[in-house]
């Protein structure tokens, strides 16, 4: 007995499978054995090391964040638009939830669809329409800490 499957059904199934792979790839899972969050939802704290330390833990030193540029630390982007002015943002693109992958030539860049953000988190180039979500950071001595 043969079963006929419509092209539409095959394409719909393939699309769902690719979407699941994309969500898994963009979820920022860790090698520490913790579960990756689904659809970019925050995870409950765990005993496993996290890529973005909780409030008060050092994310980077001030020397590691160049003036007029920035660095990505786990799921946090740290920038220094002007000397001594440090800002923090979520490293999750507001377009489709991909993790941002670089800070170059004065913009924070997303590898998935080409969105670019300024060092202040504003959209420079879409398809993203919303700015990056701010993350509270502060300088304590030579360290930049969450919180």
Detailed description of the structure:
With 147 residues, this protein is an alpha+beta fold. 14% of the residues lie in helices and 28% in strands. The chain contains one helix and ten strands, in the order αββββββββββ. The protein has a four-stranded antiparallel sheet, with no helix packed on it. The chain has a three-stranded antiparallel sheet with strand order 1-10-9, with no helix packed on it. A three-stranded antiparallel sheet has the order 2-3-4, with no helix packed on it. A hairpin with a 6-residue loop joins strand 6 (107-109) and strand 7.
Keywords:
147 residues, 4-stranded antiparallel sheet, 10 strands, globular
Q: What is the rounded distance between the termini?
A: 64 Å
Q: How many E strands?
A: 10
Q: Which CATH architecture of the domain at 64-146 would you pick?
A: 3-layer Sandwich
Which series of helices and strands comes N to C?
A: HEEEEEEEEEE
Note the beta-strand portion.
Answer: 25-35%
Q: Write down the Rg.
A: 18 Å
Parts with pLDDT < 50 across at least 5 consecutive residues? 5-54
> What topology, given as strand order, has the largest sheet?
5-6-7-8
Query: Helix/strand-derived class?
Result: alpha+beta
Q: What is the overall shape?
A: globular
Helix fraction, binned, reads 10-25%
Q: What's the main sheet like?
A: 4 strands, antiparallel
Signal peptide: 1-24
Protein name: Cytochrome bc1 complex Rieske iron-sulfur subunit
Keywords: 2Fe-2S, Disulfide bond, Iron, Iron-sulfur, Metal-binding, Signal
GO cellular component, one term: membrane
